[in-house]
Amino acid sequence: MPHWDFPATEPIDLLVEATAGSVRITAEPTQTITVDVRPSGSGKHGDDLADEVRVDFADGRLEIVEPHQRPNWLRFASGLDVSVTLPTGSRCWVTTASADVTVDGELGSLAAKTISGEVVAGAITGNADVSTTSGRIAINEAAGQVSAKSASGSVDLGDVASDVDVNTVSGKVEIGKAAADANVRTASGRIKIGSLSHGWAEIVTVSGEVKVGVAKGAGVYLDLSSLSGRVSSELEPSEASDEVDLHLKCRSISGAVKVRRTELADAS
């Protein structure tokens, strides 16, 4: 199994390009970057494919790149399992076709693009930009802006301290807490947001149900409508739109819209 060690104590930039298999990134206090590449299945030429991966580290940038065009003798090889351990706060760019991406620890930023692979991350201190066609997107905590795009895959976000922009076609969207502007749009997916407190929030769906919680103590201006779905709110809206903490706009064609007051307190 190919293995690499590189000395590093400060955050680095990581680029990974892989097709199938998996990519696991572990960010932790360390003095050594480690890279392991192994075949993910029992393909005939899996070991040969692992040996063809290019791994380079220079000037604070680590690149792990699978051959873009496999030789004929590698075309039936299985995918690869890529494991990387790097310093906390590192910045990562990952591109895959069907390989899943898993991040443990705390990254400085994450940009990930995949077709059918899922992207799961723990904590990100900067921005996150993730897109997938059918894979799931899950980020537990993000201090920066989050952009998540999926066709049929679900989007699950925990606590987001900055702006949120989510777009899906049929995938459901769940956000635990969004502390700034939120733009969430889906065609038929269900949308559930545990707590909103500040900024402008626009929640739009065609046939999906919308459930939104507003933080306790936050003043809110409501603009809610559904063509054929039921609209309900537990809140007393403010009449002065320029004197509130949150402007909340929810739109649905046939789905229900429900707004409630959550027990989570406004952090302002």
What does this structure look like?
With 268 residues, this protein is an all-beta fold. It folds into 2 domains: 1-118, no CATH class; 145-262, no CATH class. The chain contains 1 helix and 25 strands. The chain has one helix at residues 46-52, and strands spanning 3-7, 13-17, 21-27, 32-39, 54-58, 61-65, 80-86, 91-95, 100-107, 109-114, 119-124, 128-132, 137-142, 146-150, 155-160, 164-168, 173-178, 182-186, 191-196, 199-205, 210-216, 220-226, 231-233, 246-252, 257-265. The strands form 2 sheets. It has a 13-stranded mixed sheet with strand order 1-4-7-3-9-11-13-15-17-19-21-25-23.
Label this structure with key terms.
13-stranded mixed sheet, mainly beta, 3% helix, elongated, 1 helix, 25 strands, single chain, 268 residues, twelve-stranded mixed sheet
Mean pLDDT: 89
Identify low-pLDDT runs: 71-77
Helix content: under 10%
The best one-word shape is elongated
Integer count of domains: 2
Main sheet properties: 13 strands, mixed
Q: Class by helix and strand content? A: mainly beta
β-sheet strand percentage? over 45%
Strand order of the largest sheet: 1-4-7-3-9-11-13-15-17-19-21-25-23
Count, helices: 1
Nearest-angstrom radius of gyration? 21 Å
How many individual β-strands? 25
End-to-end Cα distance, whole Å, is 52 Å
Helix and strand sequence: EEEEHEEEEEEEEEEEEEEEEEEEEE
